[in-house]
Design goal:
Chains A, B: Keywords: Amino-acid biosynthesis, ATP-binding, Kinase, Nucleotide-binding, Threonine biosynthesis, Transferase. Chains A, B: InterPro entries: Aminoglycoside_PTrfase, Homoserine_kinase_II, Kinase-like_dom_sf, Pseudomonas-type_ThrB. Chains A, B: One of its GO terms (biological process) is threonine biosynthetic process. Chains A, B: Belongs to the pseudomonas-type ThrB family. The structure is a homodimer. The first copy, chain A, is α+β, with helices and mostly antiparallel strands. The first copy, chain A, has 2 domains: 95 residues, Phosphorylase Kinase, domain 1; 203 residues, Aminoglycoside phosphotransferase (APH), C-terminal lobe (Aminoglycoside 3'-phosphotransferase, Chain: A, domain 2, Alpha-Beta Complex). Chain A is built from 9 helices and 9 strands. In chain A, the strands form 3 sheets. The first copy, chain A, has a 5-stranded antiparallel beta sheet with strand order 1-2-3-5-4, covered by helices on one side. The two termini of chain A are 36 Å apart. Chains A and B meet through α1 and β1 of A and α1 and β1 of B.
Chain lengths: 319, 319
């Protein structure tokens, strides 16, 4: 949850006046997005999200996100495209922050996805990948495989988070370094498609949101992240075969994975579990217990990692 | 800002199904209200606020608020009335909390009210008082004059908040106890009508919100609270005569104050400034600096108190 910056009503009216979206009716800070301040803005023409970019999203990256979301929206993906003002500008300034007015998407994030919802998100991810493949831009994945060792080192004492975690992470990093594939199909991916970044109405995906970790990486790694975050019990111990098969079936409707991708999925999923295990461990150590942002327990990601390490993990990716 | 409690989408759908308000389209936690969790709920029929009551608002007080806001709304006041479900119930339970679905009101809280906005809020306050006078319910004002000494004592070391504050508060409490009027016109009042509890579109008041401090007290004290919060510079040192006159003029359009009320206004305003000075000092001492809720500086209220103590304070209330 996050509203870090106040917006003056007069400044807001001036900002909205740059656009052909009517005049302000209401503007409420919303508890969505961890890194930015977000407001649900209603005008006489409709609803929009106003995002003020705080720290982690650098202003220099904003044109990439504007172009990416515009490209995906133009290709029919339900993503929150930045609106352009009358001069064609999407990136503004208000309250001393870079800011965008963004398309509002209906829907609610599922808490406990049903198999039918997993199938829909698999298909939406696949359709998004087909559109992303023709996007000309690219961006280093600062949360990708090459950076995991540095994140582990920046965390400090991993054993203080979970006893025995340091040895486990060291061994896993060595294994992944030795086996990480070099040549799978790649383009810009979402890289963080957890259920709270998907909006749904029933079984229909109405929004793929929060692209601020989007970067260039293997498309199959994106599928692995989605697998790790949609198909497990809350404690991470059990992968639900019905949800996993549904996710894979939905994705397969849009994308025919290569044999090399299929073979790599268990490994990529180990990487996905490790990536979120490491960043949660990092935030666990570095976020005060009573801070504005809720810390997420790393343990369920460790449980997923162990499941993906098992000799029969390939079966979790059967269509 | 506050969203303390998560709402499961299935539970939300079941709750909304009790009402004749369509089906859920979107539900986003909003950073409004300090004591409760609030969500902006959109259905196929319109927009609503979903409030989950956390700690300070006791479930036992909820029927009072439901009745009060229903009465005020029925009398044409722009207040957020609780919606009743198909069985006539306004108070529900979700996520282990008492909860209400509440009418959505457009508008934005002014940051720096213009005189024309002060006049509008004065008139809206007066109209609300005319409606409240016929409301049969009542409620002890736990933040009223009789309770200020206990709040001061519960704060602890007032001098740690502002040097010299303990002596000043002791003297002011003694003065107010000696002079507080006993027989002014009274009924249920808002008691906290700061600008962030008023929604406006331009010069039009579209919402009087957050009635959770509403209680039985002098109507002129409510006007004094509004005077203290709408007519001063941010630092509390200067009362703007144009804003103050406009506020009084707007109120006078709806309510003809008695001579005793007019005479008491400077004293009531000293009480209003002291009340918010004390509760801010209390929260300053008892809220961790990095907690979810932003602490508000008590100093600007002390500056207002000093201004209302001045021999010429009566002039601030001229119409």
């Amino acid at each position: 949850m996050a509203v870090y910056t106040h917006v003056d009503p007069d400044d807001l009216a001036a900002l909205v006046a740059r656009y052909a979206i009517g005049t302000v009716v209401s503007c409420k800070g919303i508890a969505e997005g961890v890194e930015n301040s977000n407001f649900l803005l209603e005008t006489t023409d409709g609803r929009f999200i106003l995002t003020l970019y705080e720290k982690r999203v650098q202003a220099g990256d904003l044109p990439f996100f504007v172009d990416l979301l515009g490209h995906l929206a133009d290709h029919g993906c339900p993503v929150p495209a930045m609106i352009r003002d009358r001069d064609g500008e999407a990136i503004q300034r208000i309250s001393g922050r870079a800011a965008c007015i963004i398309q509002f998407l209906p829907g609610i994030s599922p808490s406990h996805p049903m198999p039918s919802q997993c199938e829909a998100v698999g298909a939406a991810l696949g359709a998004m990948h087909r559109a992303a493949a023709s996007f000309p831009g690219g961006r280093e994945n600062s949360m990708g495989h090459r950076h995991w060792r540095a994140i582990a080192e920046a965390t400090g004492d991993l054993d203080a988070v979970i006893s025995g975690l340091q040895d486990l992470v060291d061994a896993e990093l060595a294994f992944l370094d030795a086996h990480w594939p070099g040549d799978l199909p790649a383009h810009v991916i979402h890289a963080d498609l957890f259920p709270d970044n998907v909006l749904m109405l029933g079984d229909r995906v109405t929004g793929l949101i929060d692209f601020y970790f989007a970067a260039s990486d293997f498309r199959a790694y994106d599928l692995a992240v989605t697998h790790a975050s949609w198909t497990f019990s809350d404690d991470g111990r059990h992968c639900d075969p019905a949800r996993a098969q549904a996710l894979m079936r939905g994705y397969a409707r849009e994308i025919a994975l290569t044999d090399a991708e299929v073979a790599a999925l268990p490994l990529l999923a180990r990487g996905a579990a490790l990536r979120f295990l490491l960043t949660r461990a990092h935030d666990w150590v570095h976020t005060p217990a009573d801070a504005l942002v809720t810390r997420k327990d790393p343990a369920p990601l460790l449980a997923r990692l162990r499941r993906y390490q098992a000799h029969d993990a390939a079966a979790l990716f059967a269509v």
